[in-house]
Every structure is written in C-alpha cells, then in structure tokens.
Amino acid sequence: MNKVYVVGIGPGGAEYLTEEARAAMERAEVLVGYTVYIKLVSPLFPEKETYTTPMKQEVDRCRWALETAQDGRTVALVCSGDAGVYGMAGLVLELAEGYPQVDVEIVAGVTAALSGAAVLGAPLGHDFCVISLSDLLTPWEQIETRLRCAAEGDFAVCIYNPCSKKRVDTLQRACEILLEKKSPDTVCGWVKNIGREGQESRIVTLAQLPHEPLDMFTTVFVGAESTRICTGRMVTPRGYRKK
Amino acid sequence: MNKVYVVGIGPGGAEYLTEEARAAMERAEVLVGYTVYIKLVSPLFPEKETYTTPMKQEVDRCRWALETAQDGRTVALVCSGDAGVYGMAGLVLELAEGYPQVDVEIVAGVTAALSGAAVLGAPLGHDFCVISLSDLLTPWEQIETRLRCAAEGDFAVCIYNPCSKKRVDTLQRACEILLEKKSPDTVCGWVKNIGREGQESRIVTLAQLPHEPLDMFTTVFVGAESTRICTGRMVTPRGYRKK
Fold this sequence. Notes:
homodimer, 5-stranded parallel β-sheet, 7 helices
C-alpha cells in the first residue's frame, strides 16, 4: 500500500493522542518528523523505524514521506498539535500532486488553541480567530490586517508563534494593534510548554501582556469584550446564563 | 473528592477520544451530558451510571454536575468535539462560583473545525476564524459583523451551526456577506456527520455553497484567497513552497 498518514499528536505525550492517531502510527512502518516531536511519540513504538529532520526542512520532510510511500512503505508524518493547523497536511497534499499512486490521509489532533484553552479555562467559548505572528512565510502587513480585523470583530484571539529569538518585538507590535480597538483591561492569558514538562500559565490584562516572559513555545489568548475571570479562570461566555 | 471533569470527546465514537478524555471518564462515577453524546461514549463504560438531559437544558445540566460533585461524587460532563469551543466548559466555570469546594478540570478534544478539516484536506492551514451562525444566544448583527471582519481579513472561515430547522436562510445570508469581499470562486467545503455514520463531504465554490443540502450536523469551511484544490482536497497553503 502506498500510504502517508499525516498525524496530529496533540500538545505533548501519549495522554493527548487520539486512538485514531495511535492506530495510524501503529500501522505505519516508519515515523517521520521534526526531531522533538518524534522524541515525544517514539517511546510508544520502541521497535518502529524513525526518520527525523531538523526544523525548516519541511519541504524535504514531506517529499521524503511521499517518496518512501511511493516505494511501497506506509509512512506516518508526525505533527505537533493538529496535522492541519500550521501543520504539514497542506504541504503534503500540495506535493502529492507529483505522487499520484500515494494515498494521503489526514488525522486530526488537539491543536494548542484547544489544549492551551483548557489550561486557562474556556477563553475560546465563543467565536474566535487563530493567528500566527511568524512572518517567515507571511508578510507582516497581512498579519497586521488580520489582527486589526480580529479586534474590529471583537473575536477572542488565539496567537501562535508570539515571538522567537529573532522576532523579539512581534507580540508588542501585535498588542499595539489590538489596543486600537480592545480595552487595555481585556482579559488575556498565556500557556507555555502545554502538556509538556515545565508547563506554565498566567492570566493577565492586554496592557500587561507584552511585558510577560514569553517564548516560541507559548500560546497566547486575547479575550473578547465579554471575556472575564471566573473562579480564577479565563472564560469567554457563550451566553447561556443570560437566556 | 469534589471534582467535575468537562470532557471533549471529539466528533464521534471511541476512535477520536484522547487518552486523557478516556481516563477522565474512567475516573468519574457518573457521566452527564446531552443524550446523543452519552450514547456515543457509554458503550465504552457499560457499567457506568449516566444522567442525560435534552438539548437546551445546558444550565440545568451544568448545575446538576456541580451539585453532584459537591455531594462527593466525581462527575464527567461530556461535550461533543472540544469542551471549550461552543461547549460547556465556560458555563460550568461561570456557575462554579457558587460551588467553591468543587474542582473543575477541562479536558480538550478534537473540535469539528479540526476533524472536519481533516476530512476535506487542510482548509485551516493558515490563519482562520471560527464563527457560529446560531442566533439563539448571539444577536444576528454581531454575527454579521464578525463575518464581515473575517472576510475583510482574508481569513479561512469555519462555520458552526450553519442552519437548523428554524433557521433555514442563515447560511444564505452569511454567504451574501462573505461575497461582499470574497470571490464567488472561493474554494469552500462542508462535512456532515463528521466521524459518525452517514459522514458526507463535498468541495464547492462560495457561489454554490448556499444551494447545498446542509443541516445542523454540518460544518462549513470557506477558504481564504489562497485556498485551492490539490489532488481533490481543499488546501489553504501556509507558503512553504514559495520559500
């Protein structure tokens, strides 16, 4: 069988895997992925062959998976969180046009917007946006436009890749844009190393957010106007209590 | 222990449960939820006591869970998809202010935006919005504003509750708003009964979308400008190939 599973493994270890994700990796003859993610799942399949590639080698990694499947082996390409949300699913499907015999199956997983939200409470309980601040593949102007529209629509916003070693001020710039429409008292929160060793989280205001000690392993949540703190957690109500 | 787990079970049966969700239900003495969702998980725990309530009894259901936990029993409140995304997590946390001894733990799950996306391909591979068209708890004007902002920001959009028996024209109205900014050729898709019996899906254009035979069990995906069809699937590229 010529098959590539693109598998979302959730935020951390085995606890967050779906049964479907586990079964797909079980069926695969080889697990492919970024070194860190392979390390998270390989203890579950100690006998399984693995092939790891460093970050920023996404195209090579996906091509390797497709070529290996074309040669007749079943491959599971492992993604952190969900397979599709800033994951490899899209890229594999784009490249798959060159490998017509290979069947690609996408296996969803719990993305950081959901796993991080659960740590903080229920910040995404009503309509929300997910925006990455990484300008590696997206022009910064487009990111700014999306932040502006998210604020204009009073969405709760989940921010991926708030900063990196090279991008030290992107979260600051994002907060300035959100503050054009959102109150400085807007309830915000962040979660670092979700579901992994060293998990940390905090609820702050939008005014405080840019001064928090965040890194590239942090997911940030900015509330809507209705978002508030209930029993110490961040909650965006859906409105049941008002009925 | 006075504990309520609010558990997202994913789209359907056991296949989509995370290990964490299964363990939380295992630890609970009683499973509470909307009748349909309890039916999906109770075969996994045939010995477990269950308490089901009909739709629209959300406040009663959450209060029952908190009261039962206050009386000393461990409760798992079961939600379809994720516990937080249009789920019960927020409401439980709001009501928990009246039950200070009860500890509430939120267990994330695969929401329809992710499980539906995996069926279609990778429609949410870049920044996206999630919007519910249900005006039961949200004024329609706010829904319109959010649709407008989502289109203005060129987000991919995932639409929950596109219509119901009573709301026959909401998707039509939503499409009209999206068409103010988005091209009628925008790649769209829908998935019905995700992960359940009778799963169906189709990729269409934004112009065709309002004429599709959708229902309240359908999740709809509207592409961004960059969204296209690759090997028959709906893909919103992140941009790796352009690098």
